[in-house]
Amino acid sequence: MADAASQLQAYYGGTFDPIHYGHLRPVEALAKTAKLAQIVIMPNNVPPHRPQPRASSAQRKAMVELAIADNPLFSLDDRELQRETPSYTAETFRQLREECGEAAPLAFIIGQDSLLSLPRWYHYEQLLERCHLLVCRRPGYPVRMPDEKQQRWLESRLTSDIALLHQRPAGHIFLADTPLFDISATDIRSRLAENRRCDDIVPPAVLAYIREHHLYR
Ligand code: ATP
User: Fold this and answer.
1) What is the pLDDT averaged over residues 73-82?
2) pTM of the predicted protein model
3) CA of 169 to the centre of ligand 1 (A)
4) Residue 63 alpha carbon to ligand 1 centre in Å
5) Concatenated DSSP letters for 167-184?
């Protein structure tokens, strides 16, 4: 029989414009704590009415590939980039659920900032019916939800039981005690525009790609 602690399939969404160590380091720690064998990075399509990423979909995908090339923990799923339509996470997990079957444990990884804005996401309660949420800490973002109703909603779904996340298909939220990295893609883009150093916050191969393609100037 397969090891129960290797069955939770975890997906990590984001714009990754560009991917940086603030994305990678916390989820590497999360993988150890939550016993994740694999993390699937899933770059998203940005809806037309929202500010567009500076790098194209193909460039964001290429940078993710370079960032994870030497690390077997990670793989890439570009299904959202291939769509013409906006990426609604709840919709993507409906599709993933269809592919994996009702019993397969699935998770979506987010940072604390994304948890705080989750109640504004399209069909966020349906998302929890389709996967667990694994949340990484992020400096500058409070640990409580913006209002009491949302905080009660969060508390009703919280678990610290890793085994449960690997046994149940969906429905729980795990707040991981991951190390803090005060890094954002926004800050990286402005550093690059001002010709400031980023070598301690962006993987070297990604930085080389950015230079080669004259991105974020
Ligand atoms: P931007 O500055 O362009 O908004 P970002 O750095 O926040 O970008 P995204 O691609 O929007 O990066 O984030 C993807 C996911 O990674 C989100 O769930 C976000 O919460 C998480 N994340 C990004 N940076 C960090 C960080 N420094 N620590 C923890 N989580 C992070």
Assistant:
1) 96
2) 0.95
3) 25
4) 15
5) HSSS--EEE--PPP----
